[in-house]
């Protein structure tokens, strides 16, 4: 068999992995969205602003952390600004824009975090054994390096 081809078992495990992730992630996002009105993108922006920037980040750093292109993030931030979740300010020192979480954005994130945590526990963590967690951790660490 050619090294560039997958056999049936390899394709099956790949599809199982993708499908499992998509189902779990979809359940978490659905529960969060139903309870808070935030989209996956909204949560990603707000969470990164707090986690990586203590409430503010350069727009390009935010785009890089989300693996989004500049245009996609800009359009999303425009929608979030209209809802009062973030604001953007030009940087004084150089070209660039700083994205800042508002008090409404922080409140929305604070409301979403326990819902997300509960959904992750319900749809993922509660289904795992200690050995599963060790295996997933090892796999995640190994594949992060590739």
UniProtKB/TrEMBL annotation:
Question: Keywords, A to Z?
Answer: DNA-binding
Classification via Pfam families: MarR
Keyword presence, DNA-binding: yes
Q: Which residues form the HTH marR-type domain?
A: 1-145
Question: Where in the sequence is the signal peptide annotated?
Answer: none
Report if keyword DNA-binding is assigned.
Answer: yes
In the record, what terms sit under GO molecular function? DNA binding
Q: Which Gene3D superfamilies match?
A: Winged helix-like DNA-binding domain superfamily/Winged helix DNA-binding domain
Protein's recorded name? DNA-binding MarR family transcriptional regulator
The record lists the lineage as: Bacteria, Bacillati, Bacillota, Bacilli, Bacillales
């Amino acid at each position: 068999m050619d090294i560039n081809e997958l056999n049936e078992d390899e394709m099956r495990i790949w599809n199982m992995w993708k499908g499992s992730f998509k189902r779990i992630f979809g359940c978490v996002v659905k529960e969060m969205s139903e309870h808070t009105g935030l989209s996956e993108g909204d949560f990603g922006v707000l969470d990164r602003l707090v986690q990586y920037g203590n409430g503010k980040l350069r727009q390009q750093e935010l785009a890089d952390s989300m693996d989004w292109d500049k245009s996609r993030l800009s359009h999303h931030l425009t929608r979030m600004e209209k809802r009062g979740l973030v604001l953007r300010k030009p940087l004084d020192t150089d070209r660039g824009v700083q994205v800042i979480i508002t008090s409404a954005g922080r409140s929305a994130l604070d409301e979403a975090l326990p819902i997300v945590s509960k959904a992750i526990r319900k749809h993922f963590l509660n289904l795992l054994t200690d050995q599963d967690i060790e295996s997933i951790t090892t796999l995640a660490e190994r594949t992060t390096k590739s």
